[in-house]
Amino acid sequence: MEKKKLCNIIKDLLPSYIENLTNEETNSFIESHIADCSECKELLENMQKEIEVNSPKKEEKNFKYIKRYSQKLKIFRNILLIIALVFTLIIARRFIIINDLSNKAMIAESKTNYYIKLEFYLNRKFMIYEKYNKDEISLAIKKIYYIDNPNNVEEYINYISDKENLNLVKNMQNKNLSTFDKDIDLDVTNYTAIFHTLPEKLYCALTTNIQNVTLSGKKCYLLKINNTERFIDAETGLIIKYIDNDKNKVTDYHYEFDTVTDEDVELPDTTGFVPID
Length: 277
Description:
Elements: H1 2-18, H2 24-36, H3 38-109, E1 113-122, E2 125-134, E3 137-146, E4 149-160, E5 165-170, E6 175-178, H4 198-207, E7 209-215, E8 218-225, E9 228-233, E10 239-244, E11 249-257, E12 274-275
Parallel strand pairs: 6-12
Antiparallel strand pairs: 1-2, 1-11, 2-3, 3-4, 4-5, 5-6, 7-8, 8-9, 9-10, 10-11
Helix pairs in contact: 1-2, 1-3, 2-3, 3-4
């Protein structure tokens, strides 16, 4: 009975003994028993053989698992690299387009002889802006047409030269003349809509959706920024249509360069206008 209990204790200890988890004193106890007990000795030998047989299988299984994991990791890494490459190519394409349009727009901005016209409808008003610029002389005209009152047309004329600075205001009731420095904001640099500095170009390339489109027979790039759409003339880098979806506003632009003559920028006729302070 005592031997059976001792064998049971040894059998419980054998797995730890094989894995070298027992201390020296326990090892001596187990080895002393095995030397006198053929049954426990046979059990130890069988357990050691089983481990020797199973170890290569286990190692092979672990190797296959690691190999499969490495393959999946490699595929995932390649997918990330492809995504990064595609993203980089998209951003590079956008940057090249924006940089090209910016360079063309800067050429237009350097012009001193130009004509600009823009038209838009907003809040039941149709507005037309025109500006003639020849060197240091400019003539800007703004007209407002009211849909609910077609007879009421407001007209603002701003004339600037090295000798004169006039502002004419005309509507159904009044014709006023002032000499305030109140230039109508219609300069070519306000409508290029292209970023010029490197950080601005990079930001635009990262955040702006750019599409190739055709508008009125012209090759254009459509830039979607926030909730706006800007159609940029591919040849000049200038905006030719601007859509503000938040305000439900569509603005059309027209440009001419080196066509303005002295007659286009003559001093306006102020007959009948009342001077105001």
